Amino acid sequence: MMMTARITSEQEKQFNRFVEDAISKARKEVDPDKDGLQRLIERGGEFQAYVVAGIARFAAKAPDYDLARTILGKDFISPEDIMKSRRGFIYTDDQLAQYGDTVPSQEVLEWCRDNDYMLVAGPNRPMSLLDVRDLKRDHFYSKEGGWYAEQKFAENDKVDTRWVMLRKGPVLNSTSKNWNEQQTLLSETEVTPNVAGVAWCVTTYKAVRNVYLLPGVYVRTSSLDSDGVRVSVGSFDARGLRVSGGWGGRRGDGLGLASSRKTET
Q1: Tally of structural domains, the chain
Q2: pTM exceeding the 0.85 threshold for the entire prediction
Q3: Interstrand relation of 117-121 and 76-77 (parallel, antiparallel or unpaired)
Q4: Is 55 domain-assigned?
Q5: HSE (side-chain half, CA atoms, 13 Å) at 104
Q6: 3-class secondary structure, 199
Q7: What is the spatial distance between Cα 191 and Cα 84, in angstroms, rounded to a whole number?
Q8: Residue 175 scores a pLDDT above 90
Q9: How far is Cα 157 from Cα 159, in angstroms, rounded to an integer?
C-alpha cells in the first residue's frame, strides 16, 4: 500500500493563509454588493465545488515533460504552452493527466527530432478546420467565408485531443510529384494528415513560438474537396495560412506532401 507524506504544520498554516488572503483579495477586487453576495451564498454548493476543483488542479503533480523538451526543444508544445498562448483555451484536469501519461517514448521523440517533426498537444475537443480558424481568424488568409466554408471536409475532418506528430515542412523530395508519387515517399510509420490537423499544428506553432511554418510552399493533405481533389495548405505568412483546392492532380515545385507519424497504441 502506497503511503503519502503527512503535511506539516507550517504547510497547513500557509494553506489557510492563502485561502484567507484569496477571500480578502476577492472582496477588494470584486467588491460584491449585498445582492451579489446573496446570490453567491445561494449558490454556495457550486462555489465550493469550484474552489475545490481549483485546489485540486494546482495541487496535482505536474506532468514530466523534461525529456521531450530536452530532445525536441522548441518543437515540443505542451498543453500548458497552448493555454498560455491561446487566450481562453483550457484543458480539463483529466485531459492534462492524459497528455502527461501518453508522452511518446524516447525512441519516438528522437525519431521526431531527426526527421524535422514537431510534437504538439491536440485541441481540448475534436476540432475542424473552421473550428481552428475561429480560434484566431488572423492566422488564416480567409478570415471568414472563403471557397471552403461550405465544403464538407472543412467541418467533418477533425483533429483529436491527443499528441500530434507533424513534419514541419513538406516530405523530403515530395515537390513536383503527384499524389501517388508522393505517397511512395512515406515510411511505414507515417501517414498523410487531414487539413484540420495540419492547420491546428502550424497555427499553434505560430501562437506559441511566433514562427511561420510552410512559408512559400503548400502541402497536400488527406482531405478531399467536393470534386475529389486533395486539399492543400501553406504559404503561411503575416497575411495568414492559405487553403487551396486548385492544384488538382498536377505537379508543382511549390507543392509537397504533409506527413504525420502514427501515434503509439
Answers
A1: 1
A2: no
A3: parallel
A4: no
A5: 28
A6: helix
A7: 30
A8: yes
A9: 7
Question: Is residue 36 a part of any domain in this protein?
Answer: no
| % pLDDT > 70, the chain | 88
Instruction: Give pLDDT tens digits for 49-89.
Output: 667 656 655 655 557 899 999 999 999 999 999 999 998 89
DSSP string, 76-116: EE-HHHHHHHSTT----HHHHHHHHHTPPPHHHHHHHHHTT
Cell of 19: 485561502
Residue 146's pLDDT is 94
Contact 75, 112 (CB under 8 A): yes
Domain holding 214, by residue range, is: 66-261
Q: Comparing 24-33, 96-105, 138-147, 152-161, which segment has the lowest mean pLDDT?
A: 24-33
Q: Which residues have C-beta within 8 Å of that of residue 224, sequence separation ≥ 6?
A: 153, 230, 231
Whether residue 199 is contained in a domain is answered as: yes
Secondary structure letter of residue 264 according to DSSP? P
Q: Which residues contact 146 (CB under 8 A, 6 or more apart)?
A: 140, 243
